[in-house]
Design goal:
elongated; single chain; 8 helices
Length: 162
């Protein structure tokens, strides 16, 4: 039989994990300023979304001005994308988020290396990759992965000869 204190504890945990409404008037002046575009519809926004918006506002308020400017520019670019492109990018983000931390790190390293190539090298690689068959592309990706793994192991070895 489950004891009463376990039931009470379980109910408290469930209550704490549930979203709760955040009354507009309970927000700080800075939060209300950051969320001003939502004031009219605030009462009909779901409690979970309200909490996410408040967390976002708090993050925004702690950013340095130059980071805020960059984020504002990125958001404006995002809004200018057509819906299909935004959906595609969100799907790609979710797929990336589902990777293991090691896989994410490899992806970031590959992107960093690609960004450091000259415009001509990038164009050449894109053309080469586009012209491959699906089977050849998969094989090339596997070779690149093995090469990256070998390089990572070599860099991690202590006292390796230069």
């Amino acid at each position: 039989m489950i004891s009463l204190w376990r039931v009470v504890l379980l109910m408290l945990l469930l209550a704490c994990s549930q979203a709760y409404a955040v009354p507009w008037d309970d927000l700080s002046d800075a939060q209300r300023s950051a969320l001003a575009g939502y004031e009219e519809q605030w009462s009909v926004i779901s409690e979970e979304r309200q909490q996410r918006l408040v967390l976002g506002a708090d993050r925004w308020l702690t950013m340095k001005p130059e980071v805020r400017a960059e984020m504002a520019q990125r958001f404006q670019q995002w809004q200018q994308l057509d819906r299909g492109k935004r959906v595609e990018l969100m799907q790609r983000w979710r797929a990336f988020r589902d990777l293991t931390p090691q896989q994410q790190r490899r992806m970031r390293e590959g992107l960093r290396r690609f960004k450091n190539l000259s415009a001509e090298q990038k164009r050449k690689l894109r053309t080469q990759f586009r012209n491959m068959s699906a089977k050849d592309r998969a094989a090339a990706l596997q070779r690149m992965q093995r090469r990256a793994d070998r390089m990572r192991r070599l860099r991690a070895q202590p006292n390796r000869p230069n």
